[in-house]
Write a structure and sequence with these properties.
The complex is a heterodimer of chains A (92) and B (546). Helix content of chain A is 20%, strand content 25%. With 92 residues, chain A is α+β, with helices and mostly antiparallel strands. Chain A has one domain. Chain A starts with a strand and ends in a 10-residue tail after the last strand. Chain B has three domains: 3-106, no CATH class; 125-436, 3-Layer(aba) Sandwich (Rossmann fold); 446-524, no CATH class. With 546 residues, chain B is of the alpha/beta class. Chains A and B meet through β2, β3, β4 and β5 of A and α7, α8, β10, α9 and α10 of B. β5 (81-82) of chain A pairs antiparallel with β10 (252-253) of chain B, so a sheet runs across the interface.
């Protein structure tokens, strides 16, 4: 699913998709349910979600408007590559 | 004018021309050889004969060589010899035309051949086993038993592993199923299977978890989902006595030039500790997981083709995280492979941490188990082996992932520059050193030094009704000099000729003998000692010397 990966602080121990969406002024259906709400650092209240592409711009503005900074924000989602195949003539 | 190192070939002289002389004597470079103006000979380099083969019959060498005509067709004869030294560059040609000089040649520096991408394999996984002392590790149960090893990769094919002689346990329930059509443990044979195989070199009894995030896209967001699964695993309750050790192998990363926000941008991954994946790596490590990442294959002088020619600053993102072991690659001769990414790391400067062995014939998935992809699970297996004797315990700092990282770094064999360097980290892991922790080398063998002190002895007697009071300082002996400790079944022999000796008058040897006997008595518990059918003591502590 194309979209934005966003890390934000949320209250509570296990915030739901709906609570995460509400924090950004979005609808729950505008978040990736398969990704869910992942606790990246629950001690700091940090969670990560993925927002559907069509809601990306609104989500970006919402996170910027929170102006919390630090670990909150939109983050890149680059492609990862195994480190063995190319050296065995199997790729690239 | 520059002086250059040269090899000078001289025609053999009569006094050193015969094969017998050339090969039987050491030739003094300064005494026996002609001198040439302009040539500074290296006195530490003994001349080397350059034999050529000559037909015995054709050159009439039978008498000279003392060999039978029918026995040898060709024999080596010292036709010339070489010395080395240095000469002014513009004088080399003139030197070559001097009488007796066959030629003057450059004495070039050579270097070991580097392993590069597409190089054939060097050595096999059996060599890696030997280098890691896996047999010694297994002998003390350090084989990965009761340790979970997560292969975060393309997927594992257990049937293939079994067909190749690897039979680790597999935990399907704790593996990650990212979506339909994904069956952990039955994934296509490929990179992940290679990694799983290489873990089993040092940890043949580990329990593998399949985390095939690269099979479902391989984006960093997929890795975050995978790591979330591992976090939940670490948080889940364990049965009493169940190990909490988890080793996480990551033989992947971001290649230079892959799309990312610029360095310094808050959304960047490569250099940003606040990126959610980098945060999550720290969270998982904090829960007790030992996390290993491959350094990458973008090292100089022969980076992988997908590096775009970039060889600087290629330990990117989580691969250089402070809370992980970043693994570089050496071949089985302990030479750095020419593509292993070099430090510094982007997130943490002093990376890689250490080296594992790579580019050997192993799993058979590829011609060579190569790249830092293979080096990492080789080390991961060693980590799992160590963990099987030192399981992670929450709240015990000596068993924390940080303690393990420090221990591995401290026990590496230093390679390259002294101490840490950006090519090798702290050096290559040493399984043998880890094995030494549990298999102590023999200390002084007291039983060899003082045979009378050691048993196993079977003693059945009652000294002053089994004193530790030692009969109120009245010792029922001295034991006569040379009198051995009683053999099994014998009573101690008292010398009742005297009234006994005071304890403080015993010699050191007598005191040692007495203490040993007392120790045996105490260990037995009672005066009467139960014995096994073979005559050995049962229930008594042995002196540990046998």
């Amino acid at each position: 699913m194309d979209g934005l990966m966003i890390q934000l602080t949320l209250p509570g121990a296990e915030p739901t998709l709906a609570e995460a969406a509400a924090a950004l002024g979005l609808q729950p259906g505008e978040l990736d349910p398969e990704f869910g709400v992942i606790a990246t650092d629950p001690d700091q209240g940090l969670y990560t979600i993925r927002v559907r592409a069509e809601a990306g711009e609104r989500a970006r503005k919402a996170i910027e408007a929170r102006n919390i900074g630090g670990a909150e924000g939109v983050f890149s989602d680059p492609q990862m590559t195994p480190f063995g195949e190319a050296d065995n003539g199997m790729g690239n | 004018m520059a002086r250059i190192p040269v090899i000078v070939e001289f025609a053999a002289e009569p006094r050193i021309a015969t094969a017998e002389a050339m090969f039987a004597m050491e030739i003094s470079a300064t005494e026996d050889l002609p001198t040439l103006a302009g040539l500074d000979l290296d006195p530490s380099f003994a001349p080397v004969a350059i034999p050529k083969l000559y037909d015995v019959q054709a050159f009439g060498l039978e008498a000279t060589m003392g060999v039978m005509e029918a026995e040898v067709g060709q024999v080596p004869v010292a036709d010339s010899y070489i010395v080395r030294g240095d000469v002014e560059e513009e004088e080399a040609e003139a030197l070559a035309s001097r009488e007796g000089v066959v030629g003057v040649f450059a004495d070039v520096s050579v270097e070991p051949m580097l392993i590069c991408p597409f190089s054939p394999p060097l050595g096999t996984d059996a060599d890696v086993e030997r280098l890691l002392c896996t047999a010694r590790l297994r002998s003390v149960g350090a084989d990965g038993r009761s340790v979970l090893v997560a292969i975060v990769d393309t997927g594992i094919n257990m049937a293939y592993l079994n067909s190749r002689g690897k039979n680790p346990a597999f935990d399907a329930a704790r593996s990650w199923t990212p979506g339909p059509g994904i069956t952990p443990g039955s994934m296509p044979v490929g990179h992940g299977t290679m990694c799983a195989y290489d873990v089993c070199i040092a940890a043949p009894a580990c329990t593998l978890l399949d985390v095939p995030f690269l099979a479902v896209g391989g984006r960093l967001s997929d890795a975050i989902r995978a790591y979330n699964h591992l976090v939940q695993l670490m948080r889940a309750p364990r049965r009493p006595g169940e190990s909490r050790s988890l080793v996480v192998n990551n033989s992947w990363g971001m290649t230079p030039g892959a799309p990312d926000f610029p360095i310094g941008h808050p959304s960047n991954y490569s250099n940003n500790p606040l990126h959610p994946f980098n945060v999550l790596v720290g969270t998982l490590e904090g829960l007790g997981a030992d996390i290993l990442f491959a350094a990458g294959n973008c090292g100089a002088p022969c980076p992988s083709g997908n590096c775009g020619g970039v060889t600087a600053n290629t330990i990117i993102g989580a691969n250089g995280h402070d809370k992980v072991l970043c693994v570089a690659g050496v071949d089985v001769t302990k030479q750095r492979v020419g593509y292993s990414s070099q430090g510094p790391g982007r997130l943490t400067r002093n990376k890689p941490d250490l080296c594992g062995y790579t580019h050997f014939a192993g799993s058979g998935v590829y011609a060579a188990d190569g790249g830092t992809s293979a080096a990492t699970p080789v080390v991961a297996g060693l980590v799992a082996a160590w963990r099987s004797r030192n399981h992670f315990q929450p709240g015990n700092p000596s068993l924390s992932p940080e303690a393990l990282r420090n221990m591995l770094r401290a026990t590496c064999q230093d390679l390259g520059g002294a101490g840490f360097d950006f090519d090798h980290g702290f050096g290559v892991v040493q399984g043998c050193k880890l094995a030494d922790q549990w298999i102590r080398p023999d200390g002084p063998r007291l039983c060899d030094l003082i045979p009378d002190l050691c048993g196993p002895w079977r003693i059945s007697y009652d000294i002053c009704r089994r004193y530790p009071e030692i009969c109120e300082l009245v010792v029922p002996w001295p034991i006569k000099p040379g009198q051995p400790i009683p053999k099994p079944g014998e009573d101690i022999i008292f010398d009742l000729g005297a009234k006994g000796e005071r304890l403080d008058s015993l010699t050191r040897e007598q005191l040692g003998q007495l203490l040993f006997v007392l120790g045996q008595v105490r260990a037995c518990g009672e005066a009467r000692v139960s014995t096994t059918p073979t005559g050995e003591m049962a229930g008594a502590a042995k002196c540990g010397c046998a």
